[in-house]
Design goal:
The protein has about 625 residues and is of the alpha+beta class. It is about 35% helix and about 20% strand. Helix 1 packs across helix 13.
């Protein structure tokens, strides 16, 4: 999702990652493994990593190099050295692969369970969140106070590539790095009240794995396994349940934070509400998140997924609006017709809607069960594209598809285990790599997870190199105006596929950098992740900076918001027009963030743009053309 991909016929569509050192062979498989080796062995921010991931990559390299060498080089060296070494490496490699895939993941300390049937002596669910997190919060507060005494700004101790961001984090070089690694516990699960108290560094994978045995999950689970609770609150957290529950931040009931002067503070809609709503999407420029109380919902173990392919975008968007409107009518119902909803625009005449509904294991026994998380599994988005039936082709009964007349050109129905469904886009980062052959997935499929791909992509290229070949942006616009954005992406950017995710605008309070309190009931997130097409690059005067500025101007014209995890190209005056900077600055002054936390503009607008009038014409033309 966040790195440049070069596809070559001779490399079987693997990631062709170019190393900067001349001592590593330029084959894409070797390059991918070598990059993984370095990224897993050493973290520039915290030093050496654990040893076993490095052993896994080294064994992969040896298997890939030594075995073909032994088969093709009949010499005493291959007989007496390579054969015994290869014989030793192969079982070690297979053992490490199996252990990595099936190893148990245990919490450092089990959470407190409230409201369970056997709960007799647990504290009351009304016990404040500070009772669970105060000791951990004081450790963070002490580090912030130390930075304040030294007169330094603060940032989270995390190296470039470990966060789910496309930006190189240069601003960390002159800041005091605050260690939040101890904030990794799930403190309390209230089964009856359907809430969970989790630390800021708890990942979505850990949160889901802990809650599923109780028949619960967070109402919104962002799509990557390693997105953290704190990252989803101060960054962006959306998924296919957002059309019912809004953003991840809309499911948060209470947050404990550390302010810029080292003091502890609890924020909620009823306590310090201005900071509670203002910190969403602020990317660590106002406070440090310590822990949060998150609303959960009851679940079933499987999700039945129906994929419907439309030949026209207008029909696809009409179906999305219909389901969103239906969700408002079912708001108080126990059972919903659709529990999950998103869409993928594969091409201008092939648009797929994914409708998910909870189901029990015995339901839909005739349906295929698809997995998306094993290292041998195909990339999910590519798998659906390859599997869905087109009505023009001969009908295959084994696929159990039902085609209709009109704009619907194909259907595919299957089911997935809930955990597989929630993180179905993690491997391959949505559409950012092609589906490799099975043998490549068997050897290196464990490197296709989002964290590994982010780390490799961000550390392999400079910002300018990465942004010059692709665009990675998420924009939220009113659902009624989605057709304008899709037209712009097709006619001007020519980037595909696109991910569409409708979002309920909960209007809980006045936000600054997130969905605001406008009158639109539904917005839609358009995920633009991909390379510029060759014909776009060959256009006279092609400028990636200008293309990004055109996108920003169109989003502003449509009354939307752009997610700031990626590069922003606003000037300071344009940034102030798009976001309520005056209220943001007031919060920084009131809660001691000024001079302690780095300003959000300095974090996200790392490439200072050259103001041009061409973008306004291009962005405006896309809207005008479609209206006509």
């Amino acid at each position: 999702m966040l790195f440049q991909v070069e596809v070559h016929a001779h490399s079987h569509s693997l990631l062709h990652l170019c190393l900067s050192t001349p001592y590593i062979p330029r084959h894409p498989m070797l390059t991918l493994l070598a990059r993984s080796l370095w990224c897993k062995m050493w973290d520039p921010a915290v030093g050496p990593r654990r040893v076993w991931p490095a052993l896994l990559v080294m064994s992969s390299l040896l298997v890939w190099i030594l075995i073909p060498w032994w088969l093709c080089s009949p010499s005493p060296l291959s007989l007496w050295v390579l054969l015994p070494l290869g014989t030793l490496v192969v079982p070690v490699h297979l053992f490490l692969l199996l252990w990595m895939q099936f190893r148990p993941r245990k919490l450092v300390q089990a959470p407190l369970i409230l409201g369970a049937a056997d709960d007799c002596a647990s504290p009351s669910p009304a016990q404040p969140m500070e009772a669970f997190t105060r000791k951990a919060a004081l450790q963070v507060a002490h580090q912030v106070a130390t930075a304040a005494a030294e007169g330094l700004p603060v940032c989270v101790r995390r190296s470039t590539g470990d966060a789910h961001s496309t930006r190189t984090l240069h601003y960390k070089n002159l800041a005091y790095s605050v260690d939040l690694s101890h904030l990794d516990r799930i403190r309390c699960i209230d089964v009856a009240g359907r809430t969970v108290v989790a630390d800021a560094q708890v990942s979505m994978r850990e949160l889901v794995d802990t809650l599923l045995p109780f028949g619960l999950m967070p109402c919104v689970v962002p799509e990557f396994e390693n997105i953290t609770v704190g990252g989803a609150i101060t960054g962006l957290g959306i998924e296919s349940s957002s059309f019912r529950h809004g953003l991840f931040e809309d499911t948060v009931e209470e947050i404990q934070v550390v302010l810029g002067d080292g003091s502890l503070c609890t924020v909620s809609p009823n306590q310090n509400a201005d900071l509670f709503f203002g910190m969403f999407g602020s990317f660590g420029s106002l406070v440090f998140v310590v822990a949060a109380k998150i609303r959960c919902m009851p679940v079933q173990p499987y999700v039945r997924v129906e994929v419907t392919a439309f030949s026209h975008r207008s029909a696809m968007l009409a179906r999305v609006r219909q389901i969103c409107q239906q969700s408002l009518e079912e708001e108080e119902a126990d059972h919903h017709a659709v529990d999950f909803l998103d869409a993928v625009v594969y091409d201008h005449n092939f648009n797929c809607i994914f409708e998910g509904k909870f189901c029990e294991p015995q339901e839909g026994k005739s349906l295929d069960t698809i997995s998306a998380l094993r290292w041998t599994d195909p990339i999910f988005a590519e798998r659906i594209l390859d599997s869905i039936h087109i009505c023009a082709e001969p009908l295959e009964p084994s696929l159990r598809k039902e085609c209709a007349v009109g704009n619907v050109v194909g259907r595919l129905v299957f089911k997935m285990e809930l955990r597989n469904y929630l993180f179905r886009f993690d491997r391959g980062c949505f559409f950012m790599m092609d589906n490799p052959p099975y043998w490549e997935r068997l050897l290196t499929g464990w490197t296709f997870d989002s964290r590994n791909l982010f780390r490799q992509g961000i550390r392999s290229w400079s910002d300018r190199e990465r942004e010059g070949g692709m665009m990675t942006q998420d924009v939220c616009i009113p659902l009624q105006k989605a057709r304008h954005m899709l037209m712009f992406c097709q006619m001007y950017l020519d980037i595909r596929p696109l991910w569409l995710c409708p979002i309920l605008n909960t209007r809980r309070g006045p936000k600054i950098f997130s969905l605001g309190d406008d009158d639109e009931k539904f917005h839609i997130n358009v995920g633009i992740y991909g390379e510029y097409q060759p014909e776009v690059v060959r256009r006279p005067g092609f400028s990636p900076d200008q293309y990004n500025r055109d996108l920003e101007q169109l989003v502003h014209q449509l009354g939307g918001h752009k997610a700031l995890y990626a590069h922003a190209y606003y000037s300071r005056s344009e940034f102030a027009e798009c976001y309520d900077v005056a209220r943001y600055q007031a919060l920084r002054d009131k809660y001691h963030a000024e001079g302690r936390f780095i300003d959000i503009y300095d974090k996200v607008c790392v490439m200072q743009p050259t103001v041009s009038q061409e973008g306004e014409g291009a962005a405006g033309a896309a809207v005008t053309h479609h209206q006509e």
